[in-house]
Amino acid sequence: MDAEIIAVGSEMLTPDRVDTNSLYLTGELNNLGVEVVSKSVIGDHRDRLAAAVHQALSRSGILILSGGLGPTEDDVTREAVAQALDRKLVFHSEVADGLARRFEQMKRTMAEINKRQAFVIEGADVLANDRGTAPGQWVEESGAVAMLLPGPPHELKAMFERQCLPRLTRIVPRQAIKTVLLRATGITESDLDTLIAPVYKKYTNPVTTILAGNGDIQVHLRARCATEAEAVQLLAEVAGSIELLLADKVYSRNGDSIEVVVGDLLRQAHATVAVACWASVLPRLRAVPIISPAASLRIPMK
């Protein structure tokens, strides 16, 4: 089963905000064996959001929306999902009463506008929010499920862990997702791909991704199988064949950076490393070497 995530809110489209909720949700879904195949950020536009919801539910079994459940006019998630599913929004007086009690506990008066949060998509289950005022919703449609969760991370995490995970566990076919990250150096990205493509192209599972950086190439292998043992075995088979081809160009088999690998080798050899720094100290840009006892760094033993 695949999943998609939509972060809702025009503020998420500015350079000042980062969607961290999707990272958390991806990790939790992967733990269930669910692959996240799409993530998007959509502003506070009901029609645009409704179109995205309709498309996501037509191709994926799970859709999670975060944000847009507040009481103001720009909080359009409820309306957009109802529009996408062609369902009505129904006012739930018990939800409104619960909101009023929560405001009383906070010694605040609930504004009339907060009653917008008591509108529930027809046929949806209300997900209580004990950390905020925005209830979530769980709605099923033609074998797929959409979860409407609040935007604040502490509210979203609590609601997802307590109310969504147990439900997902019951409906998601049990699978395991495992990954292997090989890191190589001393070879270009194109040469590496030419060398290992005959291996990874034989497989649609695991999925292979190659990422290149400055002097560092990462080969990501991601397997999804019925059991963890099957995933581990499959990864060992593919990664082993790739390692044989890359030989000593592979410097890390667990994703460690080259700095970590070199540090481990130095510790194993009981060795030290000295660093000489150069600094321009004269106005005519004459470089003067600065070497001091402090520049000799002993890497602590484990």
Description:
- The protein is of the alpha+beta class and 302 residues long.
- It folds into 2 domains: 2-171, Molybdenum Cofactor Biosythetic Enzyme, Chain A (3-Layer(aba) Sandwich); 176-252, Alpha-Beta Plaits (2-Layer Sandwich), CATH 3.30.70.2860.
- It contains 8 helices and 16 strands.
- The chain has a 6-stranded mixed sheet, sandwiched between helices. A 4-stranded antiparallel sheet has the order 10-11-9-12, covered by helices on one side.
- β1 (2-8), α1 and β2 form a beta-alpha-beta unit.
- α1 (21-31) packs parallel to α5, α2 (46-59) crosses α3 and α6 (189-200) crosses α7 (228-246).
Write a compact overview of the structure shown:
This protein is an alpha+beta fold. Helices cover 36% and strands 27% of the residues.
Q: Please tally the β strands and state the result.
A: 16
Strand order of the largest sheet: 2-1-3-8-7-6
> What CATH architecture of the largest domain would you give?
3-Layer(aba) Sandwich
Order of helices and strands: EHEHEHEHEEEEHEHEEHEHEEEE
Shape: elongated
Q: How many independent structural domains? A: 2
Computed CA radius of gyration, to the nearest angstrom = 26 Å
Distance between the termini: 43 Å
As residue ranges, the low-confidence spans are 287-302
